[in-house]
Specification:
Chains: A mainly alpha (328), B alpha/beta (344), C alpha/beta (496)
Oligomer: heterotrimer
Number of domains of chain A: 1
CATH topology of chain A: ABC transporter involved in vitamin B12 uptake, BtuC
Helix content of chain C: 25-40%
Number of helices of chain A: 15
Radius of gyration of chain A: 21 Å
Structural class of chain A: mainly alpha
Shape of chain C: globular
CATH architecture of chain A: Orthogonal Bundle
CATH class of chain A: Mainly Alpha
Radius of gyration of chain C: 24 Å
CATH topology of the largest domain in chain C: Rossmann fold
Largest sheet of chain C: 6 strands, mixed
Strand order of the largest sheet of chain C: 6-7-8-3-9-10
CATH superfamily of the largest domain in chain C: P-loop containing nucleotide triphosphate hydrolases
Largest sheet of chain A: 2 strands, antiparallel
Strand order of the largest sheet of chain A: 1-2
């Protein structure tokens, strides 16, 4: 038996790595670099260290949300409530962040707690009811928006402490804090997805829920964790956004869920679940950021900006699905 | 044979303790469905309470208490909330009943709300229109039912019984005039629009362009929407700084939220001292910024007066007393010099 | 190039390469009108790729396909379907929510001339006539989801007939059919060939091939081996041609010592599915579960494994009553289950061989890529899983190899008892023999095996004891020496 194995395996062994790793990821990377190259040829203002830092800073909040929703989509779900969570966690954090009240850990902790609870509530309803996550989170999206208005009484929560404002607006060794946080969370989320048992289970649950169950994976636990995690990341995004614009806005984050989902899907996460990577999502978010920055630099009218963005989103997904079928 | 595999796996088995996340105790299971429903209904109650702006303790008027129905553009907008709060206060003072509903920016909803006011036979209607054209049918319906309808804050194409508000074009004229004066009629300006196509955005752009025409040396080098949003405006300003750097002499933002976003981006880039920022609305945050000197000026639209005048007009109309067909509450430029008048 | 007038379909020099590997290498096939032509070969021999080229799902690199004297333009599924080549897929591709009639006319709905409205009544009538001609009692208005697998297959054939197909490809059509249903299928095939329809028949069941096939073409490793009249071959010769070596004993003798009781159920019942089932299985023993389709075999397995609940009775592991509410509980109790439906319950298609194999055995917080790869490699060697490597996605493997991945996953969780539900369904004879050997190896290692199979020779050849079920009730427990095909069938037939 051993002998038979060795011959069959060694014949094809060398080619498997190149064969398996998706061309899709490289296709996306290629599209990204082509757009960057084009922009730097058109305008000299694009390819400067400062502008690139600004792009990454602007992208970071969407990227955090996209990381969270990537977990959910890979597990076969969807979370439409992340934009509302940004608002809820933002105003909660801001309420505790006035100068000379609490140390900065308190607003962060309270914001995070709000996000985790909100996410857990999503997970709870999704796992305990037969209602599709699309509907559940559509509902909690509205609930969240309402909660944000209730907590803030419909008004922005302003006058925040300097230490709180440093989180999203400061710099460490010349690098904006948002970029540092983005890098740390990107690494963290990548490890969680690719190097942990939980990550493997997330792929399994999204790839074939019934087979995952039959393999002894407890679906409800995995889903609970995934939605809670998404809530936590949305809370971080909410806290950082509040800090960046130095005010907690009850209507902040409107439509953010769509940008985040777009980033994940552009990045190769399949809406049917089971595939996707954090690297892809990061590139997806950067792509959106680069395009929006580039169009601003070129002073393209806002009407056309929306059209261009839509075309690029569809283009990226078409490109990706073409690669998917080629592989099969 | 497969013995090798199992022994190998065995080491995999014992190497790690039980998974951390796996150990999440089954606490969640204990939360019952009833507790969820309970929580939900609390939420619903809360949201219900905070929006009913009725007054139950009015004194007895001449027999029956007057009822005024009000439909507001959006109770998520701070300015509108301020207008409404004043209306509420005024109604309480006058001892009338005010029923407020939120149109949530939907003209269709607004028309339906006015229809329901008509059905309830209110004595007067105050409408804070969502859209110029789409909210017009509401006016026609109220007039047909012989119920006086007062537009507050913005206009519809159908003429209502009375209009109380301010002219948005005027606010932009004031803001842009301030910029022109400050720059001596010469320099580069960027403009941040609200949501493209909304009445306020269209009028504020119109007003700004009127002034720009008077000053040929004042150039509009870029304009783009910031969607009324502070975070979006901040990103937009960052990108403009990359694009134009120190060429920008002034920023005109259609509202204070965006103006404050621009201020934040300029401050971060160390350019605030060299660039004038002016916006409209005079929200508390903006007044604080004017006080600090980071925002050069804002334009005060008098929410209190709009609110109180609206109720005043509504009562007169309901009682069939003579009333002004048009009450224009003037805008006021707010700078460091006259700030104290506006800070409460 | 063959220009023989008799040939309705003539394929020559067909080559198809996937990322450098030749899946088809200069393959040929000559199909006569009205014949049943068996296409034989092990898994991975290239049969599926060949058929995918024929129906236009794949475009070949080179080669010629002459259909009814014309060069067949490859690569257009609809075009080829219209020209008259239909395929009955191994995995049935019906739309479960639509009715039988709607499925038959799917994509070719008859519409009234004026408005393009669907003409339901006419469709239902046509479908009804067609099914009647085939001697079937299926109602055309029944939603597809209420049909049995066999009935669905018949509907697929009806669809091909209504499509006026002159070539029908059948890929493992009997894998889910009972003997009676197989007889119906063969009768229909006879009718079709009488009318001049040619059948390309793919199956791993030797007896079927020799019953029905006129001609046999053998492929091996993507290459054409031989075409011969069926009458000139016997099973041994055919297997030798397919495998390239001779397989002597299909069923190895189970000499493992029987140990203590590992698993038992008492008074086990699930309403509507099975009632009062009692049995025990011991270490090193193979317990066969025999019965017709719908006898409740799979339902019992699913209930033991925690996939479904049960109403009455209890499960005992090593004599102790256990609580099993989910597969996770079952796995923890040392129960392994290889499902009959490996697509739905077996594996995660987009995950790699390694990730699938280790899925039930992961512990701790972090994964152990190195150890997992080693484990996967050694299991792949032991089970002779043919893949490009441990990182290849399981979806790209052949059915037999996918099955082995699922078995590997179950074994890796170190079960004390393994339930194998139709473990050899749809896999080739070489892989079957390997699975039989594996079952033997399991019992030698002291594992108890519960074997569910619709193939009586398999049950008879491998089981120490056989539990016969009929309509959800247990009708006999036979020892190996008492059991024959006839006795099993007698107990398995429904009592009036």
């Amino acid at each position: 038996m051993k002998n038979g194995f060795i011959t069959t395996f060694s014949q094809t062994g060398q080619s498997y790595k190149t064969h398996i790793r998706g061309i899709g990821k490289y296709g996306l990377l290629l599209a990204f670099f082509v757009i960057c190259l084009a922009l730097s040829l058109i305008t000299p203002k694009f390819l400067t260290v400062q502008n690139l830092m600004i792009i990454v800073t602007q992208v970071s909040i969407n990227a955090l949300l996209a990381f969270g929703v990537t977990f959910v989509i890979i597990a076969g779900g969807i979370d439409l409530s992340i934009g509302s969570m940004v608002a809820v966690t933002g105003v909660v954090a801001a309420s505790f962040a006035h100068p000379d009240t609490y140390p900065v850990a308190v607003p962060i902790g309270m914001g995070l707690l709000a996000g985790l609870l909100f996410g857990a509530f999503n997970g709870f309803v999704v796992t305990r009811s037969k209602v599709p996550p699309f509907i559940v989170t559509l509902g909690t999206m509205t609930i969240g928006r309402g909660l944000a208005l209730i907590i803030s009484k419909g008004r922005p929560v302003s006058n925040l402490s300097d230490s709180f404002n440093f989180l999203g607006g400061g710099k460490i060794l010349g690098i904006p804090t948002l970029i540092i946080i983005l890098i740390v969370l990107f690494i963290g989320c990548s490890i969680l997805l690719k190097r942990t048992v939980l990550g493997r289970y997330i792929y399994a649950v999204g790839g074939n829920e019934q087979a995952a169950k039959a393999s002894g994976i407890q679906l409800n636990k995995v889903k609970m964790v995934v939605y809670t995690l998404c809530g936590g990341l949305a809370a971080l995004a909410g806290i950082l956004l509040t800090s960046r614009i130095t005010t907690g806005q009850p209507n902040a984050g409107t439509g953010f869920e769509l940008d985040a989902i777009a980033a994940a899907i552009i990045g190769g996460t399949s809406t049917s679940g089971g595939t996707g990577t954090m690297t892809g999502t990061l590139i997806g978010a950067l792509l959106i950021g680069v395009i929006s920055n580039g169009l601003d630099l070129l002073n393209v009218t806002s009407y056309y900006q929306q059209v261009v963005m839509g075309v690029i989103i569809i283009g990226a997904v078409v490109l990706d699905s073409m690669n998917q079928t080629n592989k099969g | 044979m497969y013995q090798t595999a199992s022994s190998c796996l065995y080491s995999l088995h014992v190497k790690q303790p039980e998974a951390v996340w796996y150990n999440l105790k089954t606490n969640m299971r204990r939360l019952s469905l009833t507790s969820i429903t309970a929580t939900l209904s609390v939420f619903l109650l809360l949201s219900g309470c905070s929006q009913s702006g009725t007054n139950e303790t009015g004194q007895e008027g001449e027999g029956k208490k007057l009822v005024v129905g009000a439909t507001m553009l959006s109770m998520q907008n701070e300015f509108i909330v301020n207008v409404h709060d004043e209306m509420d206060k005024e109604a309480q003072k006058a001892g009338i009943e005010l029923i407020t509903v939120d149109a949530e920016r939907s003209a269709l909803k607004q028309v339906e709300q006015v229809e329901s006011f008509i059905a309830q036979k209110v004595d007067a209607i105050i409408m804070n229109p969502c859209e110029v054209e789409a909210s017009s049918p509401a006016v026609a319906k109220a007039l047909a039912a012989k119920i006086p309808i007062i537009n507050v804050n913005s206009e519809t194409s159908s003429k209502p019984s009375a209009f109380v508000g301010s002219d948005d074009i005027e606010s932009a004229r004031i803001a842009m005039k301030f910029i022109a004066d400050k720059l001596g009629g010469k320099g580069n300006v960027v403009m941040m629009h609200g949501y493209m196509g909304q009445a306020a955005q269209i009028k504020r752009e119109q007003g700004a362009r009127e002034i720009l025409k008077q000053y040929p040396n004042l150039k509009l080098i870029a304009h783009q929407t910031g969607e009324w949003d502070r975070a979006k405006a901040m990103s937009l300003m960052e990108n403009w700084i990359q694009s134009y750097g120190s060429q920008i002499n002034a920023v005109f933002a259609h509202n204070d939220e965006m103006g404050l976003g621009a201020v934040k981006a300029l401050t971060d880039a160390g350019l605030k001292d060299k660039v004038i920022v002016v916006s409209i609305d005079a929200i508390p945050d903006a007044l604080q910024a004017v006080k600090k000197g980071s925002l050069d000026a804002t334009v005060f639209q008098n929410a209190e007066q709009q609110g109180s005048k609206a109720i005043e007009t509504a009562i007169k109309a309901a009682k069939r007393q003579p009333f002004d067909k048009e009450t224009l509450v003037p805008f006021q430029l707010v700078t460091k010099d006259n700030l104290s008048k506006f800070l409460k | 190039m063959s220009t023989d007038q008799d040939y309705i379909l003539s394929v020559s020099g067909l080559t198809k390469t996937f990322s450098g590997v030749k899946a088809l290498d200069n393959v040929r096939l000559n199909l006569r009108k009205g014949e049943v032509h068996a296409l034989m070969g092990e898994n991975g021999a290239g049969k599926s790729t060949f058929m995918k080229v024929l129906i236009g799902l794949l475009t070949p690199d080179s080669g010629e396909i002459i259909f009814k004297g014309e060069d067949l333009k490859t690569g257009n599924v609809n075009d080829i379907l219209k020209k008259g080549i239909s395929m009955i897929h191994q995995e049935i591709l019906a739309v479960p929510e639509l009715t039988v009639a709607q499925n038959i006319f799917l994509g070719r709905e008859t519409s009234s001339r004026l408005f393009g409205w669907l003409n339901d009544r006419q469709q239902i009538k046509q479908a009804g006539d067609l099914l009647e001609q085939m001697g079937l009692t299926i109602q055309p208005t029944t939603p597809m989801k209420y049909l049995s697998v066999a009935e669905m297959q018949m509907v697929e054939i009806a669809k091909a007939i209504s499509n006026e197909a002159s070539v029908i490809i059948m890929d493992e059509p009997t894998s889910a059919l009972s003997d009676k249903e197989v007889a119906t299928l063969f009768r229909i095939i006879g009718d079709l060939t009488q009318k001049g329809v040619a059948i390309i028949y793919i199956s791993h069941k030797m007896d079927e091939i020799f019953t029905i096939a006129d001609t046999i073409t053998v492929l091996r490793d993507g290459k054409y081996i031989v075409t011969k009249p069926a009458s000139e071959l016997d099973t041994t010769q055919l297997i030798a041609l397919m495998v390239g070596r001779e397989i002597n004993t299909l069923f190895p003798e189970n000499t493992s010592p029987k140990g203590d009781e590992v698993l038992s159920v008492k008074n086990f019942s699930q309403s509507g599915k099975f009632t009062n089932i009692n049995f025990a299985v011991h270490a090193g023993e193979v317990l066969g579960l025999a019965g017709l389709m719908g006898a409740g075999r799979t339902e019992i397995a699913r209930a033991i494994f925690g996939l479904d609940g049960f109403n009455d009775g209890a499960i005992y592991v090593r004599g102790e009553k256990v609580r099993i509410q989910s597969p996770a509980d079952a796995i923890r109790q040392g129960i392994g289950y290889v499902s009959e439906d490996r697509k739905a319950l077996g594996f995660i298609p987009r995950l790699s061989v390694k990730d699938n194999i280790t899925l039930s055995s992961l512990r701790g917080f972090f994964t152990q890529p190195k150890q997992e790869t080693e484990t996967a490699l050694s299991l792949m060697a032991d089970l002779r899983i043919k893949a490009n490597g441990p990182d290849q996605a399981v979806t790209y493997l052949s059915g037999g190899n996918q099955q082995k991945v699922v078995i590997g996953k179950v074994l890796l969780a170190k079960p004390a008892v393994v339930i194998l539900d139709e473990p050899t369904r749809g896999i080739d004879i070489g892989a079957k023999a390997e699975i039989y050997k594996l079952i033997n190896q399991l019992t030698a290692d002291g594992i108890a095996v519960i074997l569910i199979s619709s193939e009586l020779p398999e049950i008879l050849g491998l089981s120490d004891r056989i539990l016969v079920l009929s309509q959800g009730r247990q009708t006999a427990m036979l020892s190996r020496s008492d059991a024959t095909q006839e006795t099993i069938m007698r107990y398995a037939m429904p009592a009036n």
